Amino acid sequence: MTICIKTPEEIAKMRIAGRLAGEVLDYVTPFVKAGVTTEELDRLCHDYMVDVQGCIPAPLNYAPHGHAPYPKSICTSINHQVCHGVPGDKKLKNGDIVNLDITTIKDGYHGDTSRMFYIGEPSIQARRLCESTHEAMWRGIRTVRAGAMLGDIGHAIQSFAEGLGYSIVREFCGHGIGKKFHEEPQVLHYGKFGSGIRLEAGMIFTIEPMVNAGKAAIKQLGDGWTIVTKDHSLSAQWEHTILVTESGFEVLTLSADAPPPPEL
Ligand code: MF3
Ligand code: CO
Ligand code: CO
Fold first, then answer.
1. Which of 162, 189, 197, 203 could form a disulfide with 209 if both were Cys (CB 3.0 to 4.6 A apart)?
2. Which ligand is nearest to the CA of 74?
3. Does ligand 1 have an atom closer than 6 angstroms to the CB of 58?
4. Would you identify the CATH topology of the domain 8-251?
5. Where are the domains positioned within the chain?
């Protein structure tokens, strides 16, 4: 396993790609409301990335082993959809929760971030799941520093989420990121404190927990991409791209309107 330690020049490029990914979410936020289709959100984000930011949308035609090329520029995962929801002609409706996952490529480097959005007024349960998943991500982020262990991240996320009665999706994880969309290491969102590799300054990876209100089991839909909960329970996800530093971490995908970290 080879984990790339980024040079200062690469880190500078990752800061730009990361901020741009966050700014796509800022840009699209006012459009995420009842009546809009996820295809329309995909088009808005695509055009903003390409025409305004001069970025390449990384998901478009992305074809990891065993997958048909991804047909759209962003992922839109609604309600019981866990991740990799493919934008389509379905209109978002009052009470839905939706994750928008944006990955930009700028100057050869990737930035990857996602947020949950409420359509109108969500149920109390849906709001609690989304807020708790945001806090789970931040609890994972806050364990990061040079010398800490990779497993500390997953342990912090899992113990918090399962303590609330939720379950963590196992099949998908955070990932190293840089010149490639998905690099080593795999960043599990569950695990044992002190396990795994030791973190070093200059590593860059995502933390992107998927938390289900019901059971952890998932399945893939016939489109070959969309992942849903088997029990059709609600699922939420948040994602940031994180740089490991000597004293802690730097969140590379922050932007003006990114929700602030929760107080503990
Ligand atoms: N952005 C997702 C992640 O966080 C990956 C999406 S792959 C795609 O890793 F092909 F579905 F876009
Ligand atoms: Co990611
Ligand atoms: Co992502």
1. 189
2. 1
3. no
4. Creatine Amidinohydrolase (3.90.230)
5. 8-251
